[in-house]
């Protein structure tokens, strides 16, 4: 009886109802029947899943997207797209439609970034190296009005157990002495991403309705007084938190 009632609804009505769901749910409901499939594929549904400023986002893309429907546009924006002349990357979360950005190195403020003695600007997509694991780095995320400040520590280690054992054997006392200089935090560690890179969470902040605000993110280690090397950085990603 319920199926018959739904079949009597106009396709436009079903599309409007599905537009209040989510992208995964719309795809799931498209398998119910041909009428639901047509409704779930309509621009009415996928227009609502797009961010309100999607036209502005499209104008910032380095490479224009080709699409024939709002669903194709949504799926195209779910893949990383370069914006701002290639200095940032943008994509939508395919489960929620929320926006995320990756700030490239050229958009970051890095100490001595222009001095080739300290940093080399090279593209090495296959390289994964880390060398700042002797002492935890201090990390923070701060909103401009300072009502939200998040502090912590991070261990930039490649996770090599043999290397860690050797460090404890030869540098045990020095490591403990260095750690005592660092502001105590939760000691976050690296984890592997789906794209092969390693990442570490710097912190989080709430994006409310207060208008545009400046967010300051930092990772630094200046208390160890030892040389560092082997760190390759892709950028900083700002993405919605999974709830």
CA distance, first residue to last residue: 36 Å
**Strand order, largest beta sheet:** 1-2-3-10
Shape: elongated
Quaternary state of this entry equals single chain
Q: Could you tell me the number of beta strands?
A: 10
Spans where pLDDT lies below 50 across 5 or more residues: 126-134
What proportion of the residues form beta strands (DSSP E)?
15-25%
Q: Structural class from helices and strands?
A: alpha+beta
Q: Tally the helices: what do you get? A: 8
Rg computed from alpha carbons, rounded to a whole number of angstroms: 23 Å
Q: Main β-sheet, in a few words?
A: 4 strands, antiparallel
List the secondary-structure elements in sequence, H or E.
Answer: HHHHHHHEEEEEHEEEEE
What is the mean pLDDT? Answer: 75
Structure report:
This protein has 243 residues and is of the alpha+beta class. It contains 8 helices and 10 strands. Helix 2 (11-18) packs across helix 4.
Quick structural gist:
Helix content is 28%, strand content 21%. By secondary structure, it is an alpha+beta fold. A four-stranded antiparallel sheet has the order 1-2-3-10. A four-stranded mixed sheet has the order 6-5-4-9.
What is the fold's blueprint, element by element?
Layout: H1 2-7, H2 11-18, H3 23-29, H4 34-40, H5 43-49, H6 54-60, H7 70-77, E1 81-83, E2 88-92, E3 99-104, E4 132-143, E5 149-156, H8 161-179, E6 188-189, E7 191-192, E8 198-199, E9 215-220, E10 235-238
Parallel strand pairs: 5-6
Antiparallel strand pairs: 1-2, 2-3, 3-10, 4-5, 4-9, 7-8
Helix pairs in contact: 2-4
